[in-house]
Amino acid sequence: MNRLSKKIVIATSISNIFYRKGLQINPLSPNFISSIRRFNMKTDQEWRAILSPEQFRVLRQLGTEAPFTGEYVSTPAQEGFYECVGCSQPLYKADTKFPAHCGWPAFYEAIPGALKVIEDRLLGMVRTEMRCSKCDGHLGHIFKGEGYNNPTDERHCVNSVCIKLNK
Fold first, then answer.
1. Residue 142 shares a structural domain with residue 72
2. How many CB atoms lie within 10 A of CB 130?
3. What is the pLDDT of residue 31?
4. Which domain holds residue 38?
5. Residue 79 CA: distances (Å) to CA of 30, 123, 161, 165
6. Which residues are marked as active site?
7. In this structure, is the dihedral angle defined by the CA atoms of residues 152, 123, 101 and 140, taken in order, positive or negative?
8. Do residues 66 and 18 share a domain?
9. 52 and 83 share a domain?
10. Rounded CA gap, 144 and 128, in Å?
11. Same-domain status, 9 and 84
């Protein structure tokens, strides 16, 4: 059962409880259900229709692009912001990008609320994975305390294929 189905079952159950107790709650209408459908509830087929194969592999299957191959690896900080390719949510102000020489674009600070962070133990070590808070797309990892000369001493190591510059 997917997340939307679980939410519908829970909401319907709650409305039935209130109905039996004599309280007025309207059942969920199909229009309401479709309006609460979120980006991260798209099927793989729907994601494949809007993403390139490489974007799908990285953003939806937790992949990593090869180092030093991405479009934004060596571009300098600019005006504007970088947004998620999956849902167009703004993720980083362009002026927070810095040259980390690590093989992927690096930023020191995300736009507040743009990221969801998750403990990642997939490779036998503890890392901090970052995902888009809107579509739940995998973006990369956050590394702290590496001694970079930036305001946060963080390196948000982002796959270029997951972002686009909006000027």
1. yes
2. 24
3. 46
4. 3-60
5. 42, 36, 19, 9
6. 157
7. negative
8. no
9. no
10. 9
11. no
Cα–Cα dist 37/115, whole Å: 20
Domain count of the fold of the chain: 2
Domain boundary (39, 60, 81) is at 60
pLDDT score at 108: 97
Strand partners, 131: 116, 138
Residue ranges in 2-160 assigned as alpha helix (H): 3-20, 30-35, 44-50, 53-61
pLDDT one digit per residue (tens) for the chain, 167 residues: 555 545 554 555 444 444 444 544 444 544 444 444 454 589 999 999 999 999 999 999 999 999 999 999 988 888 999 999 999 999 999 999 999 999 999 999 999 999 999 988 877 778 899 999 999 999 999 999 999 999 999 999 999 999 999 99
Residues 66 and 56 in one domain: no
Residues 8 and 90 in one domain: no
Q: Are residues 81 and 155 in the same domain?
A: yes
- Distance CA(166)–CA(41), nearest Å, equals 25
Residue with tokens 């087929």: 45
> Which of 15, 45, 60 corresponds to the end of one domain?
60
Helix spans in the chain (H): 3-20, 30-35, 44-50, 53-61
